[in-house]
Amino acid sequence: MITVDWKPNRFSPVPIQKQIEQFIKEKIVNGEWTIGTKLPSQRALAQAFDVNRSTVVAALDELTAAGLLAGNTGGGTRVINTTWSLLASVSPTNWNANVELGIHPPNLPTIQEINHAEFRSGIIRLGTGELSPSLLPASEQMQQLFARQAARPIPLGYQEAKGDSFLREQIVQRLKKEGIATSPDSVLIVSGALQALQLIAIGLLKKGSTVLLENPSYLHSLHVFQSAGMKLQGVPMDPDGLQAELLPAYQKQFKGAILYSIPTFHNPTGNVMPAKRREELLRVCDEQSLPIIEDDVYRDLWLDERPPCPIKAGDKNGNVLYLGSMSKSVSPGLRIGWLVGPQPVIERLADIKMQIDYGASSLSQWAAGEWIASGAYDQRLAVIREQLRVRRACMLNALERNCRDLASWDYPTGGFYVWLRMHEAIPMKTLFDRALSAGILLNPGHLYDRQEFGALRLSYAYASLEELQQGIAALADIIRSLGATGRT
Amino acid sequence: MITVDWKPNRFSPVPIQKQIEQFIKEKIVNGEWTIGTKLPSQRALAQAFDVNRSTVVAALDELTAAGLLAGNTGGGTRVINTTWSLLASVSPTNWNANVELGIHPPNLPTIQEINHAEFRSGIIRLGTGELSPSLLPASEQMQQLFARQAARPIPLGYQEAKGDSFLREQIVQRLKKEGIATSPDSVLIVSGALQALQLIAIGLLKKGSTVLLENPSYLHSLHVFQSAGMKLQGVPMDPDGLQAELLPAYQKQFKGAILYSIPTFHNPTGNVMPAKRREELLRVCDEQSLPIIEDDVYRDLWLDERPPCPIKAGDKNGNVLYLGSMSKSVSPGLRIGWLVGPQPVIERLADIKMQIDYGASSLSQWAAGEWIASGAYDQRLAVIREQLRVRRACMLNALERNCRDLASWDYPTGGFYVWLRMHEAIPMKTLFDRALSAGILLNPGHLYDRQEFGALRLSYAYASLEELQQGIAALADIIRSLGATGRT
Ligand SMILES: Cc1ncc(COP(=O)(O)O)c(C=O)c1O
Ligand SMILES: Cc1ncc(COP(=O)(O)O)c(C=O)c1O
Questions:
Q1: CA distance A304 to chain B (A)
Q2: Ranges of CATH 3.40.640.10 domains, chain B
Q3: Quick check: A173 contacting B, CB < 8 Å?
Q4: Which cofactors does it use (chains A, B) (predicted)?
Q5: Count of A–B CB contacts within 8 Å?
Q6: Would you list the DSSP string of B92-135?
Q7: Is B324 close to ligand 2, i.e. is its CB under 6 Å away?
Q8: What is the pLDDT of residues A377-387, one digit of tens each?
Q9: Alpha-carbon distance A164 to A236, whole Å?
């Protein structure tokens, strides 16, 4: 479905309806809207153009009469001719068939809806897993970074396959403090941790392999492994995280090729795996010859005390691939993450990265390196932690006031998330839609566990304090209106 | 195969051999070199460590005696135990089997060799398709861009799926001057033009599809379509480029799903398709319902006169996907390219881009937008063109002086390349190896056409003027030494 963000000019002498006709005709003439393109509904067009629906109907009628558009019985309108195909008998490509052919599936419908709604103004984003714009570095800080005559010139050519060596060195130094001993040879810079998962999917696993992972998990909301022909198999969690003792049985039944885990400030539950469980998990995986992807992008966002050492810190056999990112602690726009693992694996994935995009932005790599080396990274972290503590308190307060009878939740000790478990199952799709009509964007639990219809992922990182309070009060009302009676 | 870039410290009191043993042991203990990892040859290690081969042999013997390494009859050495697996009976992951399992094939061996050799110092890169570092903007220029308080703040959050709207608007304005009418809705910002090809491969084409393309072509040196399960089928070129009149027959036989073409300053031949052939190609493709990918990354690098309008400019049916990039005209490190096409196609590919890396670096997108809007882009182009003219003259002179009797070539009117066609076939692999031993890195023709063993892609963009002269003189000697007699 195409989107429209143009409006007729009310001050123009050309009548509104004519302007709309011209706008649509131009899209068709330019080849932007090809034959087969489905137009948004009349209602959606009226809303986008900010005009009465009758004006839209009149304009569409004109273009239909001209042979460019056709309506169908379901009320949809499609482009059926271009001005040129009317003149000559050429056969333009049916892109819309192609669009459905490709190998890679589209995003989950709910995710697509979320992606769109995020750019609507005035929406309260109660589930968004990003730092609020107010928590990102100011533009001026980034400018200063560049303005300060850095010792290292800004590289502008194609980069080494593994990425900027200065940045890799900085990462090695930071990881050392977390107990991970490695060298820049075994670090690959990626365009965000998401890309590391993409590379592992296409570079290390066979088609038809199974990836074991926590249930629920962030990974369930993505297609990265499935689109490469792999299956996901959830493993239950308890309050200490993934239940390591179940792994041998799961391995026996599902023969996982790799295990994906977020042991620290888990997305979506906020859970932290204690040191003991980490050791157990590593031991069981070693015994089962099951390699681990440890996704540790939230590590630096502890709010009360440092989390236990990464699983990777105890890994003496190179069984763990370790992922980090600048996205959650500095800026997602940089698109800088890293992957640490055995050198032959890193070199294999570096070769593939060169084949798919010739490496990450050298500007971003340079900025990330300077950001860490200059100390700005740690300074920002202190600011962000302080703010996240205030936000966490605000959300927990609002939940306490509004939702005690409707749901339960745990106290998150870091990261962004509160996993809200309803006391009673409620129709999640209706909840999502009603909340959206009320201007509240939710991340329903089934994004993270297909079977989960009684939970929501809340995030205190994005919405403002006022929005958090307002949003949660309104959310509680909507849940109640859906028949949840509340426990007494 | 792993690479090593460490050297023992000659000033340390620890004997060199012990340092080498410790270095290797640490790699194994850290899990960077896992069980099964194949070490570089003794000769290669001796070269990397800058020591005698006997020192390397002694160190490897020690580690073999300790049970960590084992040699095989072929003379190769592998890691067979970690210090930990010697202690406990754990079974570490055999990553090296995984490394061979993945879906995505490794780069072509010659390309891997080239990628490595590029980072050797003192090498003359006679084929490299990049601007020389001296033609990239100075670090200061990039710093000034950031320092100048720009009207637009630097965005640091996750970005809109299609990319920064200011940059898309800049691109639309530039394309207008080239005769392409489009709007920002139909433009997708990608992390380099290479990624656009990746997105088309996984987002628009069915497995088993055939991609038609020029023979030779840059695309033959990549795996982007093949790794997504597609086949490439070359179509012959004449001096006017791809032979459009052959397409119906090729279509009949191979049923191409799409045609990939580089009509302007073709890589590797430097060829420019005249306006008439462009019209014919578009007409034939329209008749055959064969969509076109027009890769136009070299357009701005004309040296004598503006090239004909893009094929896209004549496209009234939305049959053409158009690719551009900042890599060849400003900086490849930015990793910024664009894809222009029908809106439903663009939105489909934008959705997939979000799924594979959440969009291009916001820093790079911001810088690219400012670069164009501020006029710096056009100023740089003028400088680059001037320099490329000098370089072109230098290379053609050297060829004239050294190679007249050995090969023929055309005069390139823009871009980077001279396609050197030998009068006699010569053993290309031997030529490549001998040249490399003499410090000259070549791009052999078979990278661009598997059947081509009598051509080389030369580039005047990368090596210095002195290197160009020296390199070509040395190249001619090597060709002669391989038995090419020279025509008289
Ligand atoms: C657990 C986890 N891993 C990876 C990512 C992706 O991070 P990046 O922006 O570095 O690709 C996220 C972001 O939501 C996440 O929650
Ligand atoms: C014809 C052609 N297309 C695309 C590319 C890749 O460009 P980018 O750096 O924008 O990915 C190149 C670079 O060599 C090229 O020659």
A1: 26
A2: 139-374
A3: no
A4: pyridoxal 5'-phosphate
A5: 390
A6: ---HHHHHHH-SSPPPPHHHHHHHHHTTSTT-EESS--S--GGG
A7: no
A8: 999 999 999 99
A9: 39
Q: What are phi and psi of B155, to 5 degrees?
A: -75, 135
Question: Cα–Cα–Cα angle for B13, B18, B19, nearest 5°?
Answer: 70
Quickly tell me which residue has 């990553």 as its tokens.
Answer: B95
Q: Which of B5, B37, B130, B146 to mutate to test the interface with A (most CBs of A within 10 A)?
A: B146
Q: Which fold has domain B16-102?
A: Arc Repressor Mutant, subunit A (1.10.10)
Q: What pLDDT score does B216 carry?
A: 97
**C-alpha distances in Å from residue B112, one per residue of B116, B359, B452, B455:** 6, 27, 19, 20
Q: What is the CATH number of domain A139-374?
A: 3.40.640.10
Mean pLDDT in residue range A79-88: 61
54-83 of A, contacting B, C-beta below 8 A: 82-83
Q: Which two tokens stand for residue A484?
A: 């949840």
pLDDT of residue A321: 96
B378 Cβ under 8 Å from any chain A Cβ: no
ipTM surpassing 0.90: no
For CATH 3.90.1150.10, list the domain ranges present in chain A. Answer: 116-129+379-481
* Cis check: omega of the bond before A216, within 30 degrees of 0: yes
Q: What is the mean pLDDT of residues A283-289?
A: 90
For the entire predicted model, the pTM comes to 0.87
Residue to substitute in B260, B327, B335 for testing ligand 2 pocket (most ligand atoms within 8 angstroms of CB)? B327
Stronger pLDDT, B485 or B402, i.e. the higher one: B402
Q: Considering chain B, what percentage of its residues have pLDDT values greater than 70?
A: 93
Please check the confidence at residue A281 and state whether its pLDDT lies above 90.
yes
- Whole-number average pLDDT of chain A: 90
Going by CATH, does the domain composed of A116-129+379-481 fall within 3.90.1150.10?
yes
Residue from the list A93, A291, A335 with its beta carbon closest to the beta carbon of B291 = A93
Contact list in B for residue A189 (CB cut-off 8 A) is none
